[in-house]
Design brief:
It contains 4 helices and 2 strands; from the N terminus they run αβααβα. By secondary structure, the chain is mainly alpha-helical. α1 packs antiparallel against α4.
Length: 108
């Protein structure tokens, strides 16, 4: 990624990168890969169960499922943001003394 875009939101950077790679829509195996499904069968099951985390759609006279790169980029950025928030919460919890415990000073 270009360092001049360091202050741009992650979703914008991902959108730009994915669009340059796939165009405005991504489909089939590429869609499976960018969403992190380990196999095409896992992806098909998620579609069947309607547990895909972004809107997917069919295009007339085309095979497979499609999604807008914009939706994929926004979802990926949200996943990373959630992971960072979870990490911060874990670090804060580790730094906070447990309820009922006291902090002892070394000078006693």
């Amino acid at each position: 990624m270009n360092p001049t875009h360091i202050n741009e939101p992650l979703a914008v950077l991902l959108d730009r990168e994915l669009t340059s790679r796939y165009g405005p829509i991504v489909s089939n195996d590429n869609l499976r890969l960018v969403l992190g499904y380990s196999s095409m069968e896992a992806f098909r099951q998620a579609v069947s169960r309607k547990t895909i985390p972004i809107p997917v759609f069919e295009i007339e006279n085309r095979r497979g499922k499609f999604a807008l790169v914009k939706d994929v980029a926004a979802w990926l950025a949200a996943q990373r943001e959630r992971a960072l928030s979870d990490d911060i919460a874990i670090m804060n919890a580790a730094e906070t003394p447990a309820a009922g415990s006291t902090i002892k000073s070394g000078g006693d």
